[in-house]
Backbone:
């Protein structure tokens, strides 16, 4: 897909802050430190549009990016490693769950898994939750450049066994591996 425009629009901390123009939305979900910001910047071929951090758990809101003035990328807070209070972590979970359960404009959920590690219990719970609610899903195995071809093949196979029935794409923000496959899924989902 040719990116003609990509702009940060807003951060939403509550439902009343969600966008209201009815455009399709693609949600990016994953553990803290899985590489969501790097993936977003790589997909959009923009440095620094989505902020990367060495401190996991920095994203504490739903961040909306308008792409080609026809759909949104929505970066959800990471789960897992964030070194924040239980109250803050709980509010992130509720915010994300409300968004995922209620948002009619949500056309695709892209769940990121670090290809170097087996999916965690939280990864499995999110996967099952999305499946239970009938959300269109794509699994993206990030940081694939850090594995040999053989290690990556085994990792993708293991992810597929643990999170079955959904396509898994190997992705590297460094090399661009998987970029076209992810864009095909996004393009298909946002053609409304």
Residues:
């Amino acid at each position: 897909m040719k990116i003609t425009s990509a702009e940060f629009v807003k951060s939403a901390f509550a439902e009343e802050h969600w966008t209201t123009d009815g455009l399709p939305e693609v949600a990016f979900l994953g553990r803290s430190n899985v590489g969501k910001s790097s993936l977003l910047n790589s997909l959009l071929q923009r440095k620094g549009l989505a902020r990367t951090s060495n401190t996991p758990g920095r994203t504490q809101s739903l961040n909306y990016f308008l792409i080609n003035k026809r759909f949104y990328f929505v970066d959800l807070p990471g789960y897992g490693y964030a070194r924040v209070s239980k109250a803050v972590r709980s509010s992130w979970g509720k915010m994300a769950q409300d968004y995922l359960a209620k948002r009619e404009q949500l056309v695709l959920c892209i769940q990121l898994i670090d290809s170097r590690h087996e999916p965690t219990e939280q990864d499995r719970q999110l996967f099952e939750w999305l499946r239970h609610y009938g959300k269109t899903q794509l699994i993206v195995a990030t940081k694939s450049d850090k594995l040999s071809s053989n290690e990556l093949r085994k990792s993708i196979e293991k992810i597929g066994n643990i999170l079955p029935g959904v396509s898994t794409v190997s992705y590297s923000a460094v090399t661009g591996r998987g970029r076209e496959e992810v864009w095909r899924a996004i393009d298909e989902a946002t053609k409304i």
